[in-house]
Design goal:
It is built from nine helices and 32 strands. By secondary structure, it is α+β, with helices and mostly antiparallel strands. β15 and β16 form a beta hairpin. The longest helix has 22 residues. The protein is globular. The chain starts with 5 loop residues before the first helix and ends with a strand.
Length: 499
């Protein structure tokens, strides 16, 4: 009865519902008027050179977002384009530093409208060593709506990531902002950029539904502000042996703030070209905002999946990724989830803002935090980092009575769980075996978010069902209960539960 209506309402054409819009955003929408548009197809020839210290780099992909060409042996390229192109950019090759401005990745150059020719050179700096081993973090849904939210991001979230990045002490560390960088208030992008700068590592950005212009008359114009600050909405880069791709899967279908999860034909054609330069069998990481797939329909016994909660044409993405070992990074839902499809693992991340800055957890009980991925050659290991906790904080245990529906059971929430994990319990030092998995609500989420008056900041927030909940029933003679969780990489985490 506490089911949050968020995902069910997103993208529904008949209902026309979404997350609440700020009053200023609604006013801006009401005042917008469509201006005459004329498609400019003026031919454009882009030439340039990719080099490091004056030495040309061969075989580097360069694109206008439509077509991709490779640099020749001297690092030069010629790209035939037209005035519909907005950027020229490259796929950053392995072994080179990520160009950035105060942490914001700058791998592109804007194209000025109306010109017939353009020169775009890219000067790269080599890394001091091999980047086969590297680490990246995924920040999903900072989603600030006011200065109070940004204060938390700047004073708590960013310093936490800065401290963790310093522990790795490597120039091969970077992060991905996985969409909903703000919550419709575009003036807060500057606060987001300040937080990025504080972390001390380069960030690549993904566009989310709350990063779109809500007054746009179509999807084509919905990313104008985002592009002016962060560049193209889809692109790729390489680190070590891994190929990274960022996609825009939020398709805007008109005000007020309606959208679906969808990959356009233009992106898919570009992605086909991009992956043609990646050796089959390689590891490919795709970052986008809306999950490609989700267990929400199953958990909530819905008739149809949410149009704004998953990618409608995901099977085409799966087809393109089939020759590779693929990982998909997503956010949007403010829950932690792992989805497996053939050769692909999707990591849906808990939110930086938790349940929209209403408390320390997301709606499924996952702590506010971010994903951490340690890469060694083609292999990736991962864990979830909760703000204010060390990396060993991987589950939360509750005593008997925490779930009124199962008053005799202890409860454990293992938010980054997947089927390769083991959740075992011990009574009075004796191993009792695996705990029972059951889709249910997190007790702390119920305490903080359930009911019409909670949470105070956003009363529409409700707890959501999670697959990563586990139960066990101690005997009446139990004096000590210990839970042992082993992740898929063999790392063990333990906690004693009050009887």
């Amino acid at each position: 009865m506490f089911r949050r209506k968020f995902l069910q309402s997103l993208g529904l054409l008949s209902a026309g519902m979404s997350l609440p819009l700020a009053p200023a955003a609604v006013a801006e929408l009401a005042e917008s008027k469509a201006a005459p548009h004329k498609l400019n197809l003026t031919p454009l020839t882009i030439k340039g050179r990719v080099h490091a210290g004056g030495k040309g780099l061969a075989g580097v992909p360069v694109t206008d977002g439509y077509n991709i060409v490779l640099t020749d042996k001297s690092g030069r390229y010629t790209l035939t384009s037209n005035s519909t192109a907005e950027f020229v950019y490259l796929t950053l090759p392995r072994g080179y530093q990520i160009p950035h401005e105060k942490g914001v990745a700058r791998f592109y150059q804007p194209i000025k409208p109306g010109q017939r020719s353009m020169t775009a050179d890219f000067a790269l700096q080599p890394l001091p060593g091999d980047d086969s081993k590297h680490t990246f973090m995924v920040w999903a849904d900072p989603q600030m709506i006011d200065k109070k939210d940004t204060h938390e991001l700047i004073t708590v979230s960013a310093p936490d990531l800065k401290q963790l990045a310093a522990q790795y002490n490597s120039p091969n560390t970077f992060a991905i902002g996985c969409g909903d960088l703000v919550w419709d208030h575009f003036e807060l992008f500057e606060d987001y950029k300040q937080a990025v700068d504080i972390t001390g590592i380069p960030f690549f950005q993904v566009i989310g539904n709350h990063d779109m212009n809500i007054k746009a008359r179509s999807d084509d114009g919905s990313a104008e502000t985002f592009k002016s600050l962060f560049g193209p909405t889809y692109y790729s880069f390489n680190r070590g042996e891994v190929h990274y791709v960022v996609l825009d899967d939020v398709f805007f279908i008109g005000p007020p703030k309606k959208y679906i999860g969808y990959l356009t034909e233009t992106q898919l054609q570009w992605l086909e070209q991009d992956l043609s330069h990646v050796k089959p069998g390689s590891t490919v990481v795709v970052a986008l905002h809306i999950p490609v797939d989700s267990g929400d329909k199953r958990r909530n016994q819905l008739k149809d999946e949410s149009l704004g909660g998953v990618v409608s044409n995901r099977h085409e993405l799966y087809r393109l990724l089939k020759p590779y070992t693929a990982h998909i990074m997503s956010g949007h839902t403010h829950v932690c989830e792992k989805i497996f499809h053939e050769n692909t693992i999707e990591h849906t991340h808990g939110a930086v803002c938790g349940a929209w800055w209403t408390g320390p957890i997301c709606t499924d009980g996952t702590p506010s935090g971010y994903g951490v991925y340690e890469v060694d050659g083609p292999t990736i290991k991962w864990y979830y980092k909760s703000f204010g906790k060390d990396r060993n904080h991987q589950f939360r245990a509750y005593p008997k009575g925490a779930n009124p529906e199962r008053p005799e059971d202890i409860v454990v929430n293992v938010w980054n769980w997947d089927p390769e994990w083991q959740v075992t319990w011990f009574e009075n030092g004796q191993r009792q075996g695996p705990m029972h998995q059951q889709t249910s609500l997190d007790p702390l989420a119920v305490q903080l978010q359930a009911g019409p008056k909670l949470p105070a900041k956003h009363k529409w927030v409700d707890p959501t069902l999670a697959d990563h909940m586990f139960y066990a029933r101690p005997s009446k003679d139990a004096k000590e209960i210990r839970v042992e969780v082993t992740d898929r990489f063999g790392q063990k985490y333990t906690e004693t539960v009050a009887v």
